[in-house]
Amino acid sequence: MSKADKTPQKPDRAEMRTKVRAGYVQGTDLTIVAAGHGVPYATAVSWKRADKERGDDWDTARRARQMAGAGAQEMFGQILEEVGAQYISALDLVKKDEKMSPAVRGELLVKMVDGLSKAAKLAGLVSPEVNELATAMKVIRLQNEYIAEHHPEMRLPFVDMMSEFGIELPRLLGVQ
What is one Pfam family matched by this protein (predicted)? Predict the structure, then answer.
């Protein structure tokens, strides 16, 4: 056996990059995974940044893996939580815009409640608790439609009140 056969082969740069990415996506801190493979931390950060620019976002892959590992119910809970956070942020912007007409504000709030209702319904396919939330939100949407048709003068106050109530609804139903 020659000396070359006994010397372990050093992994090439592409293989090392793949291993560092895999370790990071699986949940290991980038500092630790880089050191474990003998790669300088700055190099790992550079690889991560370059891959993101090419459309391979290591953080997105890591979150997707974490969500998949948590199971469907947990994943939909996380998605619904994110949708809820976006809803609250958008609601704050709509409320603070003093130049927005009441009609436009009402329409935006209705669309926001509808979007949140649809997200809750999707998540409810996996979780009975979230399904209860979706049903409650559907009732609010139906009430809004009824008020718009039969008592249009009460629509904006109703939408304002229900938008705030919608934030509390998951907590009241024990879905958070």
Answer: DUF1804
Residue 150 corresponds to which tokens in the numbers above?
A: 């039969």
Domain membership of residue 22 (yes or no) is yes
Tokens, residue 68: 């998949």
CA 25 to CA 93: how far, in whole Å? 35
| Cβ(25)–Cβ(66) below 8 Å | no
pTM: 0.39
pLDDT tens for 124-172 read 655 666 667 667 777 887 888 888 899 988 887 887 777 667 667 777 7
Q: Does 147 reside within a domain?
A: yes
Compute CA distances 3 → 10, 11, 136, whole Å: 15, 18, 73
Domain identity same for 57 and 84: no
Q: Which residue range is the domain that position 59 belongs to? A: 8-63
